[in-house]
Design brief:
Distance between the termini: 49 Å
Shape: elongated
Radius of gyration: 29 Å
Number of helices: 16
Length: 458
């Protein structure tokens, strides 16, 4: 494609002025498109360039064909991309790229809806002008998002004590009582009494030592009037369910009531702020593996990147304001977890986990933040449909997300970024990539791309 003298074209300001001058002129909008007029040509053949005059910045410069766009083509696409649902996007798009790179037509749509969360299937990104199409979802390249789509207030968290006690007079035991499911205490005493002691524990006996060394001795016996032997017997017998349940088909029965009680208590006593965080943790386990014996941990997980690599994996929801853990969900193994709520509706385990962990606050307008284990376009839309907002780091669950385009787009220097937006079911979604050494790609339904306060890396 070529241009003629007098044609009106557009080119981004950073290419016309250079990256740093463009930022000085336009700040956050340093990639805004400037209008110019073709004045002539330079060179010939593959080295041919067009001399363009940009009146807005009083600059004349030569560009190759790839750097320029005709103004008419831009005006025809001003409305931007809007689709009514992901299902419509899937059924109106005539070709898809599956995990092996093969082309799949409309007859194979059903299987595409069940692609595993670890696929990276956006190699079919189609770029036309400033619109990127990924599996039928059209994303428009924009200069930035300057207005927050979330209109709810940014409120803080507080504890629902339920009495007028002076906060300064509260002791650590008061905070423990606030979190522990006290309604289970009578039953725990009954079940523990009915349990038989088994085994011994040597690792904690130093806590009853009375000999000072480099540090003062713990002296638990003197401080708490609890003999060591009695403590160990109580610990060996401690039970959170009836003995008959512990030997039943539910392998997690020994702790299920405790976890459920904890979650209920947090909903009753903690009023979280407007930001919630979803993540995972590991409770260290050095005992037996239930895969090889009848009395071990039912499902042991190994995650190398965790400080405690082997143990019970737990998905968590926490309040970003107070850092208080709000909800826990034990990971019981893939076969069991695939039967949990929301999995059949959304097909993605991460999306289902986000919705289950935030269920007590559906419809509250709170903003959810999550990492790559949970983040996807599907998660963002699911949160919006349940009255929440979402921001997450997208890496593996890339269906409907312009990951291919974001991985290939050129940046002038570290710290540059690009933003794309789309609308699905009336919900706005932002795709944002930040050009670090390893690019960070985000999907979000709220906030803006206005620069914040500088943050120095540690």
């Amino acid at each position: 494609m070529g241009f003629s003298v007098g044609d009106r074209v557009v080119c981004s300001a950073d290419k016309v002025l250079g990256n740093k001058p463009a930022k000085q002129w336009y700040g956050r909008l340093f990639r805004k498109e400037l209008q110019g007029v073709v004045q002539g040509t330079e060179g010939s053949g593959r080295s041919k360039k067009y001399v363009v005059c940009f009146d807005e910045v009083a600059t004349t410069k030569a560009f190759s064909t790839r750097s320029l766009k005709q103004l008419v083509a831009l005006e025809n696409d001003e409305a931007g991309p809007t689709i009514t649902s992901l299902d419509e996007a899937a059924f109106t798009h005539n070709a898809y790229s599956d995990i092996d790179g093969r082309l799949t037509n409309d007859d194979d749509i059903e299987s595409l809806h069940e692609v595993d969360i670890n696929e990276n299937n956006c190699s079919s990104d189609v770029v036309s002008s400033d619109v990127v199409s990924c599996h039928g979802v059209k994303w428009k390249v924009v200069e930035g998002v300057l207005e927050d789509w979330r209109c709810a207030p940014q409120y803080g968290a507080h504890i629902l004590w339920g009495n007028d006690a002076d906060e300064l007079q509260r002791t650590p035991i008061d905070y423990w009582k606030l979190s522990f499911p006290l309604q289970l205490l009578p039953d725990i005493v009954t079940w523990t009494t009915a349990s038989l002691p088994a085994g011994t524990s040597e690792g904690r006996r130093d806590l009853w030592s009375t000999e000072d060394g480099l540090f003062p001795a713990p002296r638990f016996g003197e401080r708490y009037s609890l003999p060591r032997n009695r403590f160990e017997v109580l610990l060996r017998c401690l039970s959170f369910c009836p003995p008959s349940e512990a030997k039943g088909n539910d392998k997690w029965a020994p702790v299920r009531r405790l976890i459920d009680g904890f979650n209920e208590r947090r909903v009753q006593k903690i009023y979280p702020g407007w930001q919630l965080c979803i993540d995972e943790s590991v409770s260290s386990w050095r005992g037996k593996d239930g895969n090889f014996c009848s009395d071990g941990m039912p499902h042991v997980t190994r995650i190398d990147r965790k400080p405690k690599e082997v143990g019970c994996e737990i998905k968590n929801c926490a309040d970003a304001d107070t850092k208080v853990m709000l909800q826990l969900e034990i990971q019981e193994g893939a076969e069991i977890m695939c039967t949990r709520e929301y999995v059949a509706d959304y097909k993605l385990a991460g999306t289902a986990q986000v919705l289950r962990l935030t269920k007590p606050w559906h419809g509250s307008g709170r903003a959810i933040s999550a990492d790559l284990a949970f983040a996807s376009v599907t998660s963002a839309l699911a949160c919006r449909k349940h009255g929440l907002h979402f921001t997450g780091l997208v890496k593996t669950a890339t269906k409907f997300y312009p990951k291919g385009y974001m991985d290939e787009v050129e940046f002038a220097e570290l710290g540059d970024d690009i933003t794309l937006t789309t609308t699905v079911d009336g919900h706005n979604i932002m795709a944002h990539v930040w050009g670090d050494k390893v690019r960070k790609c985000f999907a979000s339904t709220h906030s803006t791309t206005i620069p914040g306060r500088p943050s120095n890396k540690r």
